[in-house]
Amino acid sequence: MVYDVISILDFSRNEIMQLFDLTDKIRQILPKRRKIPILSGYTAALAFFEPSTRTRLSFELACKKLGMDTLTIIGESAISLMKGERFSDTIRMLDSYSDLILIRHPADGASRFAAEVAESPVINCGDGAHEHPTQALIDLYTIHKFKGNINNLTIGILGDVRFARTVVSLLRGLTLFDPKKVYIISPPFLHLRDVYRDELKKRGLNFEEKDSLLDVLPELDVLYVVRIQKERFPDPSDYEKVKGSYMVTHKIIKEYAKDDLIILHPLPRVEELALDIDNTKYAKYFDQAKFGIYVRIALITLIFGVQDKIS
Ligand code: CP
Fold this sequence. Notes:
Distance between the termini: 19 Å
Number of helices: 10
Number of domains: 2
Radius of gyration: 19 Å
CATH class of the largest domain: Alpha Beta
Bound molecules: phosphoric acid mono(formamide)ester
Strand order of the largest sheet: 7-6-5-8-9
Strand content: 5-15%
CATH superfamily of the largest domain: Aspartate/ornithine carbamoyltransferase
Helix content: 25-40%
């Protein structure tokens, strides 16, 4: 099993399936036991230099359910980076105060850099427009649970595939499996970056890029929607041009989608996914967010090699 988690490609398919089995076990045990304190006495440092609801809270909860103590940084303003401290020195401090570093940062590659500085394991909780590997584990787990498999499915990924790091991680993760077809659907300005298109081709993913959801919606088993990542636009006027350029509504889904389509979203949503889908059979994004706690407990357990203590 992995030590640092920087990319979803740090995992093999077998390791992901092992993680899913452990996640299933934790989902059975935790509601009855409330805690599984097999890492009591260990400390996790959560260093979040960008906003987060789900990733930070579910990782903090996962650590606490395992009996770990947590140290938390939220934003740069409260720590000595503001006084000119080098980022590498901040990481060295976190490394000396903790046994696990969880980092979210606006710069691509910040987690890789932290992993090179730190001796403790580092988990990338989202670095710029690069990757969000634990979100991809949750996305793949959710597909696996609701569809019974990841292979042989037709999966549509809709939205800002240019800047969304969850999309990069999910697409890379799908290359470890054998989906029937992946449609990458986005307005022209938000198309996939060339570097990732080339990589997916090299890795043999059967994918096609489309501009319109309606062209492919009737074929889909899974629809994964992402918001436009406003904070990543170098020029804010470009955001204004594409804002509101796609929206999934219950009406469209009811009219064109398969009866057993599932809709996922890493959240937060803005205006790309209508609220009227929330209470329909298609909506699985709140289940997906809840699975995040269990997947993250399983991941930390495997990183520390204490999975045999879960019974
Ligand atoms: N999915 C996700 O990364 O959500 P947060 O930004 O709230 O952590």
